[in-house]
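Support case: user asked for a sample of complex input and structure output to validate their parser. Sending the pair below.
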Amino acid sequence: MFISMNWICDFVDLSGLDKMKLIQQFSLSTAEVENEIFQKGSDIDGIVAATILSVEPHPESKKLHLLKVDAGGAEPVDVVCGAPNVAVGMKTAFAPVGARIGEITITPRKLAGCTSNGMCCSESEIGLSDDHSGIMVITDDIPNGTPLKDVYQIDDIVFEVDNKSLTNRPDLWGHYGIAREFSALSGRPLKEIGTVDLTPYKDLPKVDMKIEDPLCYRYACIQIDNVSRTVSPVNMRIRLFYCGMRAINFLADITNYIMLEMGQPMHAFDSRKVEKIRIKRFEKEFEFQTLDKEMRRIDSDTLMICNGDTPVAIAGIMGGLDSEIVADTTALTLESACFDPVSIRKSTVRLAHRTDASMRYEKSLDPEMVGTAVGRFLRLLTDNDPGVTVISAFTDEYAYHYPKIAFDFTRAFLDRYTGIEISDETVLNTLHALGFGAELSGDTFSVTVPSWRGTKDVTMKADIIEEVTRIYGYDNFAVHTAESPLYPVQISTEKNVEDQLKDLLVKRYSLHEVHSYVWPYYDEFKALGIPVEDNIGLLNSTVVIRRSIAPTQLCQIRINTAFAPEFGIFEIGRIADGVNAETNLVNEKKMLCITLFSKTRTTEQLYYYLKDMIAVLADDIKHLPVRFAKAEASHAWQHPKNLNTVYVNETAVGEIGLPYPTIAEKIDKKAAIVYAEIDVEKLAAIPRAEIVYDEPSKYPEMEVDLTFLAPVFAPIGDAVRKVSSPLIKKLSMTDIYEDAQGKAITVRLLFADKEKTLTREEVNEVVDSIINTLKAENIALKQ
Amino acid sequence: MMEKVNQLKAAFAERLQNVADAQELETIRVEFLGKKGSVTGLLKDMKELGNEEKKAFGQLVNTLKNEITEAIAEKTQALGRLAIERQINSMPDFDLSAPPVLDRGSYHPITLVQRECEQVFRSMGFTVEDYSEIVTDYECFESLNIPKHHPARDMQDTYYLTNGQLLKSQTSAAQNAIYKKYRRALIEEGKPIKAVFPGRCFRNETTDACHENTFFQMEGVMVDKNISISNLIFFMKTMLSEVFKKDIKVRLRPGFFPFVEPGFELDISCLICGGEGCPSCKHSGWLELCPCGMIHPEVLKAGGIDPEEYTGFAFGLGMTRLAMMKYGIADIRDLNSGNLRCLCQFTQDA
């Protein structure tokens, strides 16, 4: 929203003060001001009023005219002008030789052979409006040669307030509210807004008007006849233009002017079209044409202004085309109203049509303004068009009053919140300047909230802290640290586990951490042939939340196949495992997903590499061994074979597996791809095993290598465990190969005795026992 | 006899001189000192000598034997030195001019920035908390004093799920749970609540170089008796100076957020120009950085904390924005792209 400092100065005298500094203060104390501040009028100089004395055709050009202009000097000035609206006797804006417009200084200049000693200007050329259809028409009686800046408010400082910073301040949606802030910041008094007293009209007939819906808080109207003026005064047009609106006609301009001035939207109807005003909603949907000529769909939640049963305007949003003021309108019905802010906002969203009016209404406007705005309208109307007649009583239905808000707070409360001392006087002055009622008795302040702050903005004493401190100025605060007792910081295990996992995967395994979205990658899934799985989804959408991260990572692997011959990625992210039927809450899980890609290893080798990685993770984080158990594939993207559940301490924490062959092939025909997904919360919840120190034997240890003809390692491990000799310190697999005899696995057993030197016999006894156990299971020692 | 000894001595000296390696030396040793060696052979001749002579000759042979042994030992050492020298000389100079093969993993840039911030907060006595991404309306809005019809709840901003839950639109969604988790310690043991909670947030926006629907924030709260606006300003200034590793000027402007009262927009002096004004701060000298404020009494109440007795402040930091600022990442979409050509560069640990 653009703010004109001239307009502000109508209500607070800021003479002698540095206005730029005040604007800066406003930005720090009230609402954010955009960086660029406009010095309006600074780009023109020396423009005067002048009357066209004669108009002759140009000998060489059909478009140009030769004028003699009275610019206040002794002699008329010869001017060549191309504007279509030149006429004898017309008063216009004239830039004589020596005047400046933007970068250009006016000099005598030949136009198609004739010299022009100056230039007649359009409003657009001198920055007063965007009208460049012809030269400016001045109807005011100004002596020729008078600088326009002396009669019109062309010089102005205009700044823009970020609308977002005003969402909670309905009172700041017009200049008067902003002026109140400047009053508080400068310590200068705020003037009253000029209105016409409406009571003299009370005996005139009332307008037939009735609120039939609680969404309308207040509705007031008045009927006026004999409006003769069509074009608004120059100063009014300049202000509208500077504040981002364009002048339309006198009546529309006043309503816009009041909206910019007070924040109160108004609407003027042709009286012939609104003989019986009713404010209500309709049960059935229908089409309605607004004055921008758009057809709009109105539903049963949208409040309408009606003439009897005929809708004439969308309440608080936009008037209808049919009831608009037209050329032959003589009598108008002026609406000033207040509506339920939430209803207006929702209607705006449904209609996808936001207007200057709805933008204000949705902020919770002060219904008290409704009457004042009508008085203000009549003031501006009668001041500029004295012949108008009011033909109805001021008709006002005030259906909903916001509750009056008042509360007390103590000195101690204020001091505790601010951490500094702000004097009683400053507190009272600030609150009074902002329009609050405030009294101090003992150490208790009693506050009443003014109507324009009481619609939602200020509701309790904490709100007063803001009022006092922002005007006091945060830059003026003495800052100091808190005096709080010291305690050890509590550390969340889960957060720690997450950090440990990341460190290990990045530093030891050189994996790359990635991030992704929580919904499926629809297009990429399609390309890879990964079906989207049914799951809880977004409301009013076909998008679901993912059930696993692995499919996402397969898509991410796919875009990176050229990155390196071998690489791995991981993410700690969230999935939704359906909805809990009892609580109706999503089963959200935090998962670690790892996917490895390799063109240098076989799938089997890569699988073992990942398996060892998981074992290291479990050992590093929980100091516990992992165990794997075959699992059944439950997702279409999984390879049906080599899917294993990962157990840590008997808790199933995740799985390790391969993508379905066709998916892997689509990613890269020659590469191996394996993945694992681990539930981080489950892993974190497992108690960590402590390190138990085992002192190495002081006697020599003995290693024995045995090669068995076995398809898998498991029975060998089982046999070693079964023998359970205290002499066995370690069992490891050293080789696996296949020859004519079949698959062979070499294991190494480490023997040690803490008490004495081992004998060959006792070791052999254990070894034989293992061999015999395996023989019973048809696993022979390789010869 | 003497002659034989001298001959042998000379022969040995000659042989020794020409020895090239340890193996040859061993042959010589066996030749002279072995059981069948020539020095041993000399002793065979002793039988023919008289007692006196025997003694003298014996001494002579012994001396010879000792001399040879010593010479061999010396030669062994010399050969060893020579071998090492040869080994050293034969080693080529390695080529360090070739680019190193790093094969390092990488952290996501958000992780790095988040860890840096966490470290600062831990050093100031804050606990770091984690929270879910799918939350209830109560957690995300109602407990945060965001009334039923607040625009922040609008469908176009928040991703609602079909069961009524939603993808959290702000890390503040964890506030209520954190108050409830620590309120007992606050009220019964007098331990102030000091917590930060980073997290992934979601807002329904069309993505482009500057907008993402999935991004990271970190929120922090401190609650105790007598926490004031003055404390908030002090804390924010100290904390941000640590985060940016330079002395930062801060300024507060009023800002409206339903869960704080008063609420502020915090600006910091521009990191590029230090406040002089430059294109990156649009010549204002200030950068809008983070929202903060005094925790709204209703929010404390919802967390089971009496606002008449306790006050607190809260602040939010945009991790995604910080990461982009820190590393000069121009396109926000790179962060969620999974593109390793972008992400592999973030190798350094926080």
